[in-house]
């Protein structure tokens, strides 16, 4: 601030002289939190010069305050005591302390066992105040209580009500002043006592009756059966119903929920409207004649429509395996697909809700990955509501020093500055109020928000456990603790909202509904037709007919189109060279390479109206500098995608360079693909080895989702694979793991070796009316291999070949050995055989390893019925790759009486060697072994 302005301000202020300390103290408060001081003060401090902002030491301004105050003192010749003003600052500091740390003294634990350490900041003495100051009036600063001044006693009482009652709010870690002010207005405006009408209070009570009633019913009807009871966390039911109803009122059309086991059956029946009788049948072991393995009842999903004041909302509860938190990115992917389908950019039409356990959210890393994705271009969904069913014990671990290294299980949310609302689960009205606050915050600021529902677990981890063996103190208290329904009913009786008989009727009426086995959710509505139709893809097998024809004229037209970019879009010299080469490929002057054929495949699909989504850690250019679908202007960094400009009205391709994550990203793409059958959804690993980080997604979703849950998914994984001497971490995409999981036609596993093959494979995945995953072992050296090229005619006239016969002009009758192989090693074998001018060994490529193309291979084998010597050749060690998983297929394909042997690396614990000299030696040996016929 200029000296003249400061001087003028001081001259008009009563804060001159000794009261300079007041300014300094007030400035300290402002530095801690701009929202803690009144608007006039905040505006004054905001206008201070840059060197005095919070980014720098404020000593410059402090000295200026003192110097100007001293000068003013000399002019005035008097000293103002300043004592009342200093106390005013202390009051503002007290208010600020409650905003920062009041949650640590909040009454959050229904069992009253959770004792946090005393917080000195929250005492009057810490701020040099005493109860003798209670009757003195002070300015309340920005405290949103509707008054400018209040007695200290009233201020202190209100701060205790607002910040140390049933709600503990953590939001002062948020950088945005606007967001903090918004939360303060909502929290402080209620004065710690949210009010609900008698009708709404009765509705909350009925929802608690349902939550408690279902668990008691199941406990008596199926004693000892696992159900992962919600008992102790009953307020989850009114919480969810409030979220759904209010979201619909605010314009949401769909809600996607992800949760683990705890309370799932209760949510299915009392929120989504699953028929109790259907649940009882599952407990009794009854099931339909549907194909598949099925899954346990507390993993199952469900869909329904739900009536809200804003119209019906479609609900979807995601299927979830026992790897608890992995469902979170799956939900986000499903939400993003629905947003894209509805043309929603900000998340206003689709709401994601994830429900966590307190141990899991702090313990499983995919939570951090999902938070990290929440504001990125590829994965943002306009914020999510995250709920923790915090029963204060993980399985049998209740000591926090064993469960986590943070004060709260929710501290992970602070990494994205999400507000965290801790709330006592035995105060249902506080729970509902926090729910409203959380949803409105999410809708206003499009950011994640967390509700920590602090409760308890009435039984053990499951109903067969004996929890008092490991938590004796907690469960001694639990046995005496009345259920939430009883606590709330008593409160409403005291308020004359209900009487005892009315409560009894609520309980008996709900039990009668369960006895009938019919739907118990009043808001349930039968599902209407969805905006997406899966029927064209249901029941089809791999051999279903489909039309993939494309003319040479169209190929060349699109080939030229994907080579066009604005003249003022300056390319990197290497990229420009690649595009100049592609122009020749489009003209037919040069054979197509991998990057051109792949990009051309995308162009044919978007031209035909098929949307494409491709993500990966370097997918715009391609990890191996081959794709260059996203062109970066060397002048200003702007980007251009030729594939999105092949014609007016085309479908779009989205290509995103993703966050450095595998588990959450692949789970997100899985969720997207399960919600959108009409788009080609692809994920590309930087190196195929990196897919290891997503093994949970592959094992529990991708490979088995259709068998367990009947969930179709067309996700494609592009996994660079091939032995190039780059060591054990950059050679193998662990092909053997995918083949080991192959069964029931659950997916296809392909290893294409030519540009034409990848062109047809991509088109087949989208055009064939089958929605199952595609696992692709993509090449590295073949991207520029002189033999791995294709004529345009192969793209126009061909199709994907599951197996490719010998391509050289060999006389089959003279062949003494047939080598079967897959992938890059084929070109090593071909090059060496040609070098040797060898004509007695034929080489057959298996391009689709699963489902194994038995008919195509049998057709090829007709020329080699006389051959007795067959070899499987692979680059991977013997205990990896294809050999152990697929040799039974090969043996069934060769003539009777023939022998099948192995040529490849010896078995190894590591995928590859780290020394290039050793790699070359091994590679030459396996090629020699495959081609050398033993006499």
UniProtKB/TrEMBL annotation:
It is an enzyme of class 1 (oxidoreductase). Keywords: Oxidoreductase, Thiamine pyrophosphate. It comes from the Bacteria. Residues 592-785 form the Transketolase-like pyrimidine-binding domain. The keyword Oxidoreductase applies. CDD domains: TPP_E1_OGDC_like (cd02016). Belongs to the alpha-ketoglutarate dehydrogenase family. E1 component of the 2-oxoglutarate dehydrogenase (OGDH) complex which catalyzes the decarboxylation of 2-oxoglutarate, the first step in the conversion of 2-oxoglutarate to succinyl-CoA and CO(2). This is 2-oxoglutarate dehydrogenase E1 component.
